[in-house]
Amino acid sequence: MTDLSENPFASTHSLDKNPFDDPTEFQSQPNHYDARMQDLQHREQDLQRREQELTQRAEYIRTHGRNNFPPFYPLVYHSIQEEIPEASRPLITDMFRLWLLLLATLVVNMVASIFATISGTGDGFRDFGVSIMYVPVIGILSFLTWYRPIYNGYMKEQAVYYYLYFFFGGWHILFSSYMAIGIPSTGSAGIIQTVRMYIHGGVGIAGGVLGTIASAGWVVEGFGSLWFYRLIWAHGKAAGHSLEKAKGELATKGAKAYFMRG
Predict the structure, then answer these.
(1) Where is average pLDDT lowest: 51-65, 90-104, 151-165?
(2) What count of other Cβ atoms lies within 10 Å of the Cβ of residue 17?
(3) Taking 70 as the threshold, does the pLDDT of residue 23 lie above it?
(4) What stretches of the chain adopt beta strand conformation (E)?
(5) 217, 101 in Cβ contact below 8 A?
(6) Is 92 a member of any domain?
(7) C-alpha to C-alpha distance for 100 and 123, rounded to whole angstroms
(8) What per-residue confidence (pLDDT) applies to 220?
(9) DSSP state, 74?
(10) What is the distance between the alpha carbons of residues 36 and 115, in angstroms, rounded to a whole number?
(11) Domain of 111, in residue numbers
(12) Given 73, 77, 161, 181, which residue has the most CB atoms within 10 angstroms?
């Protein structure tokens, strides 16, 4: 008799095994396509969940009056800690500080223009009146047209907010540059007006010091706005926000969802 234990051909199971006959061979291999689809679905569900939470929170705020800004007359709810995703909080915090710097610069610019009027280097009461008008008008419009849109943009990640910021933020950069120059009769205590006050002497020296501070404020405001504009533009493009997408969102949800929020 032949001893099977000594026959090398007695058992060929291990050699003849077909890997295709065992489904676990494929199940153990990662399917990158399915994994990516699941990741995209999870992200979409997370965005939908966040939007629902924000909508519910906004409705609660509207109903219960949790508006907290501005402190002296609350009109909107503003909380970077609660409404902005953690990764974006430093940028939005810096944007808010830039807006506060704008308010401070407007006030210093107004006082410097008053000194320019007193010293006779300004264009009579035109610089004085325009500089006073700038404080409430530019202060409010800047909040509504570029700060609040980008705040909402990072909160809800919707393209229409980004494009509102891109439009009005660009105008703000130009306005800051214009104010830094200090052309007489424009309500600006920028560089030209500041030099005129220093040359005039007397009361103009005090105005020149304030004008220097205002000029520095406008320069920082302009370059700071340009720096953040570049960062936000890159973020918006990386997130897939486009003008067509913004138009689609506006057509789907209507203007009220964006301009009447809060």
Answers:
(1) 51-65
(2) 10
(3) no
(4) none
(5) yes
(6) yes
(7) 28
(8) 97
(9) -
(10) 64
(11) 86-259
(12) 161
* Number of domains into which the chain is organized: 1
- Is 96 within 8 Å of 148 (Cβ atoms)? no
In a domain? residue 42: no
Q: CA-CA distance, 31 to 117, in Å (whole number)?
A: 74
* Contact predicate 179/109, CB 8 Å: yes
- Count Cβ neighbours within 10 Å for each residue of 198-231 and write b for 16 or more, e otherwise: eebeeebeebbebbbbbbebbbbbbebbeebbee
Residue 234 located in a structural domain: yes
47 — pLDDT class (breaks 50, 70, 90): confident
Q: Which two tokens stand for residue 115?
A: 């000194």
For the beta carbon of residue 131, count every other beta carbon within 10 angstroms: 26
* Closest by Cα among 186, 191, 97, 190 to 147: 97
How far apart are alpha carbons 127 and 186 in whole angstroms? 6
- Angle of helix 191-200 relative to helix 159-181, nearest 10 degrees, comes to 20
pTM across the whole model: 0.73
- The span from the CA of 169 to the CA of 142, in Å, is 9
Contacts 24+ apart (CB under 8 A), 245-249: 245/159, 246/158, 246/159, 246/160, 246/162, 246/163, 249/158, 249/159, 249/160
Give percent of the chain above pLDDT 90. Answer: 50
Q: How far is CA 247 from CA 13, 41, 201, 252, in A?
A: 65, 24, 55, 9
Whether 61 maps to a domain, the answer reads no
Cα separation, 262 vs 260, in Å, equals 6
